[in-house]
Design goal:
The protein is an alpha/beta fold and 318 residues long. It has 10 helices and 12 strands. It holds the Pfam family Memo.
């Protein structure tokens, strides 16, 4: 991917198709989803340890918004209670271009129907100074939905927390990279995600099942949707256990079509680096799982969605 100078406003290219472009309606829709998630959540809110990261789906809001809302309720709470957070790092996959590496957004603003988000230019410069990141071209940035589907939720959370002016966002596209490269970029990103002012959003859907996705593994003696759930939860358990190498082995074995597997793996590698060096230890837990439909026959298809939160366990050193 070419290097290019930063300076454009990233348009909300999927507004009006993947979600409504009417700000009032969108605010009502996402607010309702977050309120419902708060009412149904079984997570104990009393501990309120610092939130360091979330994993969120990125399908159209009518499909995955109610699942993403579980994580964004926690993001909203954290922004309200923790004024030290000033930067949100969004790790997302590439669905449309081949990228052998990682690329930062070249935008200065991320437009949403709920207000614009400022891009963290200082954090971008720091990553570019490593010499290992390229810059997305505007067309690549705007064509990719997996980052964009996080921005309205982030804008709403920041508005509710009265910190839209304080929060800056840096999208990073993670390409189809090898396990060795995942570890390499994880090591680079480790000190950045450990900063007390940084919150990380990892964008990923889970299994895409059906002939139109080219994925229909053999099912033995159980309904297909149960098999899908079991396969997804095996991967989710490995993420919770913070085992990037085991997660990579699971992906190779099952071929599970987790579209954000590379962003997840890079983030897990960074988490592992920080834990091993006693910089920061996290507790990761999945708090919501859903499927777009319950597959009963080979003619059906579905996409799985999951939300996870990563809470700071302890801060051993700065």
């Amino acid at each position: 991917m070419k290097k290019s100078k930063a300076g454009y406003s990233r348009r909300a290219a999927h507004a009006g198709s993947w979600y409504t472009n009417k700000g009032h309606h969108l605010k009502q829709e996402l607010t309702s989803m977050i309120q419902q998630a708060a009412a149904l959540s079984t997570e104990a809110s009393s501990s309120m340890r610092p939130l360091k990261a979330v994993i969120c789906p990125h399908a159209g809001f009518s499909y995955s918004g109610s699942t993403a809302a579980y994580s964004y309720k926690r993001v909203q709470d954290e922004l309200e209670q923790n004024p030290s957070i000033t930067s949100v790092l969004v790790l997302h996959p590439s669905h449309h271009v081949y990228l052998d590496g990682c690329a930062v957004s070249g935008a200065i603003l991320l437009e949403t129907p709920l207000g614009n988000l400022t891009v963290d230019g200082n954090l971008r410069d720091e990553l570019l100074e490593t010499g290992k990141f390229s810059v997305m071209e505007q067309s690549v940035d705007e064509n990719e939905h997996s980052g964009e589907m996080q921005y309205p939720f982030l804008a709403l959370a920041a508005q509710v927390a009265n910190c839209l002016e304080r929060i800056q966002v840096l999208p990073v596209m993670v390409g189809s990279i090898s396990g060795k490269s995942e570890a390499f970029f994880g090591k680079i990103l480790a000190p950045f995600i450990a900063r007390p002012n940084v919150l990380c959003v990892v964008s990923s859907d889970f299994m895409h099942w059906g002939s139109r996705f080219g994925y229909q593994p053999t099912i033995v003696c159980k309904p297909i949707h149960e098999h899908i759930s079991e396969l997804d939860k095996r991967g989710m358990d490995l993420i919770q256990d913070q085992e990037p190498e085991a997660f990579a082995k699971y992906l190779k074995e099952t071929k599970n079509t987790i579209c954000g597997r590379h962003p997840i793996s890079v983030w897990l590698q960074a988490v592992q680096v920080n834990s091993s060096s006693q910089v920061e230890t996290l507790d990761i837990s999945f708090i919501k799982y859903a499927q777009s439909s319950q597959v009963m026959s080979l003619r059906d298809s579905s996409v799985s969605y999951a939300s996870a939160i990563a809470l700071q366990q302890q801060q051993v050193s700065s």
